[in-house]
Amino acid sequence: MARGERSELGRDDWFRNTSWNLEIEATFMARLCRARDKSQYLRIQASYLTRVAPEAALRLLAHYFQLGDHFDQAQAFVERAEAYITLGNLDAALNSYEAALERERVYPQLQTRAYLDFPLLIVMRQLSELYSRAMEILDATQSRLMFPIDRYHAHGIRALILDEWGKREEAKNNAALALAAASETQSGFRYHQGVGLVPTASNDLAYRLEAIAQTRH
Fold first, then answer.
1. Residue 173 sits in which domain range?
2. Alpha-carbon separation of residue 137 from 29, 30, 42, 146 (angstroms)
3. Number of domain units in the chain
4. Nearest residue to 205 (alpha-carbon basis) of 137, 156, 158, 154
5. Quick check: 7 and 1 in contact, CB under 8 A?
6. CATH code of 26's domain
7. Cβ-proximal residues to 112 (8 Å cutoff; 6+ apart), any chain
8. Which one, 26, 34, 122, 178, has least CB within 10 Å?
9. Whole-structure pTM value
10. Are 4 and 24 in contact (CB under 8 A)?
């Protein structure tokens, strides 16, 4: 949306803008001033901007954290990490993911995908000094793997790390498990069969897993 254009969101969606400019910000802040639960609106709006307007997302999240402790704080840390990734600030993103996991430890009532997104960032950026940390996180959260996409990422991360560590057979087995999860067409949940499936795997992770799975020993 170009500068000066008006948001087309309805009255109930004023905190879900998918673009950002001075006019949209002014409208949002005016509505926020009248809102009762300001923290939730700040976090939700920031979540829509982490990839398209990361600086704005970080400003909104800074405001969110200034308002004190909230039940969805772990998710706010995840969204802050996503904004930092968009900006290329890898160290800040890693710290934000660690903060999300720490928040989940002390407030387990709300859990996020930090347990997978954090290790995935580590392996995709080939941060070898953090591979042990990634495996530690995966080992501690195995019981949380509910959907095919969860298993795809968990086994995929393991495959890449084990391959780097020279454990080829274990890496190959995990790559096969990840690719099997990617091929699943039902979630296993009776009323939500389409939830949590893996989108068409045509990204760098899929290519690397296929190469590992086809390795001969």
1. 113-217
2. 38, 41, 29, 16
3. 2
4. 156
5. yes
6. 1.25.40
7. 74, 75, 77, 78, 100, 104
8. 34
9. 0.89
10. no
For 158, the token pair is 């393991």
> Can you give the length of the chain in residues?
217
Tell whether 59 and 91 lie within a shared domain: yes
Assigned token pair, 11: 């009255």
120 and 99 belong to one structural domain:
no
Indicate whether 181 and 158 sit together in one domain. Answer: yes
The angle that helices 148-164 and 131-140 make with each other, rounded to 10 degrees, is 140
CB half-sphere exposure, 183, CA atoms < 13 A:
7
User: Quick one: three-class SS letters along 96-131?
Assistant: HHHHHHHHHHHCCCCCCCHHHHHHHHHHHCCCHHHH
Residues 72 and 105 in one domain: yes
- Residues 173-199, mean pLDDT to the nearest whole number: 87
| Mean per-residue pLDDT, 156-179 | 97
Which among 201, 168, 205 is positioned nearest to 184, based on CA atoms?
Answer: 201
